[in-house]
Design a protein that fits this description.
It is built from 14 helices and ten strands. With 437 residues, the protein is an alpha/beta fold.
C-alpha cells in the first residue's frame, strides 16, 4: 500500500533564481496525482526534491512521519528505498540487456540469490508486457518498450511511491494510450502512491485522481480531478484546454501589452469542455481509491460543462438561471449541507475538500523584467573613469587602493576580515621564488 506525502511551504532556489516557493500539498496514499505546468516551471526539480536529491531552502516533506529535509544521510538512504522512478528517457544502461538493466536494483540493494532475482525480474517484465525480450539491448527496441523497461526496473523493489517524469515524452498517441492504461492497471494492482509529471492534456484529463498546476513559481492549484476540470480560473482553464488565449505566454507569462492587445482583439477563453470519464482498469473494476464519477461536483453543487461523463448515467447538478457552469475563484465552494456522509473527498485522513490546501494564483499578471544587479558604489559616480571615481573617494591612495581608514564594500572573499589581500601579500614573483626554495 502506498504512503502519504505531505509537502508544507516548500521553496527551492538555485542561487538568486527562485524555482518555486511556498508550495503546500498532500499526495494521498494509493492515489494517482498529476503535476502540470508550462515548460521551465520546475516540475522535474519538484520530483528530485521529493526524493531528497535536491535540498529545499525552506519547508518540509513528510513521508511516513519523517521529514526528509531534516534526517541524516543514512536514514534518507533508507527512505529512498520506498521510491521507484521512471525517468524521461528510461535511463537504461546501453551496454546491458533488458534483463540485467531490470535486475540492477536488486543486485545493488539486496542480498537475494540469482534465482530469486530471476523470478522477480521475469514477473515485472510480464507485468509490463516485456515477456520474451530479456536479451534485447536498449538500442534494439522501440521508445515505448524502453519506457516499459524503465518502469519494470522501478517496480522490482516493490516501491510504495512511484514517480513518473514525463512518461509520455517522445511517444506517439497510441503508445501513450497503452502506457496510460498500464499505469492505471499497475495502481490498481500494487496500490502505490503515483505522481506523474506530464504535458499531455489527455493524460491529465483521464488518468489521475488529483491534478496540480505549477505556474509563475507557485502552485496555482491542487485538488481532485473534477475540481480542476470544472474550474474557471484563467490559468487552469487555459492550460487544460490547450488554448493561446489566457495569461500563459511563450515566455511562461504574457506581459500587460500582450494581454491588452488580446482583450482588444476580442480574444477570450473558450467554453469549458465536457469532463471525460476517468480511465478504468482493463477489466473494468474500480480502483480502491477511485471516486465515483460526479461525486465531487454533487457534493459541492458545481454544475459541470454540458456533455460531461459521456456514456454514463450520472446524477449531476443541473444548470439553472443565474447558476454558471463550473466554479470561479481561488478556492471551490464549500460542500453542500445536504451532502451525505463522507462524500468523495472525505477521507484519507478525515480531510474533506475544504480542508485541503489550495494555493491561489497570486495577483495580476506582471510584465517580466530582467533582474539588474545593483551597481557598486564607484560605478554610481558621475565620471565613467573607474580610476577617477576611486580617487574621489575618501580613504584611497594615489594608486586607488583601499586604506585602513575606509572599508572595502566588496572585500576579497579569500580574506576573512575584509582587508585587501594585495596590501599584505608578497609580490607574485617573490612567492614563486620562496616556493622553489
Amino acid at each position: 500500500m502506498g504512503v502519504e506525502i505531505q509537502v508544507e511551504h516548500l521553496t527551492k532556489r538555485f542561487g538568486r533564481q527562485t524555482i518555486w516557493e511556498d508550495v503546500s500539498l498532500t499526495l494521498p496514499a494509493g492515489e494517482i496525482s498529476v503535476m502540470l505546468g508550462p515548460s521551465g516551471t520546475g516540475k522535474s526539480v519538484f520530483l528530485k526534491t521529493l526524493i531528497g536529491l535536491l535540498k529545499p531552502e525552506t519547508g518540509s516533506i513528510t513521508i511516513g512521519g519523517r521529514d526528509i529535509t531534516k534526517v541524516k544521510e543514512r536514514e534518507l538512504y533508507e527512505i529512498r528505498k520506498l521510491f521507484g522512478v521512471l525517468f524521461q528517457d528510461g535511463a537504461l544502461f546501453g551496454s546491458q540487456n533488458l534483463y540485467d538493466n531490470i535486475a540492477f536494483p536488486l543486485r545493488e540493494h539486496t542480498k537475494k540469490s540469482e534465482g530469486e532475482i530471476k523470478r522477480i525480474v521475469l514477473e515485472k517484465m510480464e507485468m509490463t508486457g516485456l515477456a520474451g525480450a530479456e536479451k534485447k539491448l536498449p538500442g534494439e527496441i522501440s521508445g515505448g518498450m524502453r519506457k516499459r523497461a524503465g518502469l519494470a526496473r522501478a517496480l522490482v523493489l516493490d516501491p510504495e511511491i512511484l514517480l513518473f517524469d514525463e512518461p509520455d515524452s517522445g511517444l506517439d498517441p497510441v503508445r501513450t494510450a497503452y502506457l496510460n492504461q498500464l499505469i492505471v492497471d499497475l495502481n490498481a494492482e500494487i496500490k502505490a502512491t503515483f505522481l506523474i509529471v506530464t504535458h499531455d492534456i489527455a493524460t491529465a484529463r483521464t488518468v489521475p485522481d488529483n491534478i496540480g498546476l505549477l505556474y509563475r513559481r507557485h502552485l496555482a492549484m491542487f485538488g481532485p480531478r473534477e475540481m480542476l476540470l470544472s474550474s474557471n480560473e484563467p490559468v487552469v482553464r487555459q492550460f487544460l484546454n490547450g488554448q493561446r488565449q489566457g495569461p500563459i505566454g511563450m515566455a511562461e507569462e504574457k506581459d500587460a501589452g500582450e494581454l491588452a492587445a488580446e482583450a482588444a482583439g476580442g480574444g477570450t477563453l473558450g467554453t469549458l469542455p465536457p469532463i471525460p470519464q476517468q480511465l478504468p482498469t482493463s477489466d473494468g473494476s474500480p480502483r480502491a481509491t477511485q471516486r465515483p464519477p460526479g461525486s465531487w461536483l454533487r457534493e459541492h453543487g458545481v454544475v459541470p460543462p454540458p456533455g460531461s461523463f459521456p456514456g454514463l448515467e450520472v446524477d449531476l447538478p443541473q444548470a439553472q438561471d443565474g447558476v454558471p457552469t463550473g466554479w470561479t475563484g481561488d478556492s471551490p465552494p464549500r460542500p453542500m449541507a445536504a451532502s451525505s456522509g463522507g462524500g468523495a473527498f472525505a477521507g484519507r485522513n478525515g480531510q474533506r475538500d475544504e480542508d485541503r490546501r489550495i494555493e491561489p494564483l497570486r495577483d495580476e499578471v506582471r510584465p517580466v523584467r530582467p533582474r539588474v544587479p545593483a551597481k557598486p558604489p564607484w560605478r554610481q559616480a558621475g565620471d565613467d573613469s573607474l580610476a577617477t571615481a576611486l580617487l574621489e573617494r575618501r580613504g584611497t591612495d594615489d594608486r586607488g587602493r583601499w586604506t585602513d581608514t575606509d572599508t572595502d564594500p566588496h572585500p576579497d572573499p579569500d580574506t576573512a576580515d575584509g582587508s585587501d589581500a594585495a596590501e599584505t601579500a608578497p609580490p607574485v614573483r617573490g612567492r614563486r621564488r620562496a616556493a622553489r626554495r
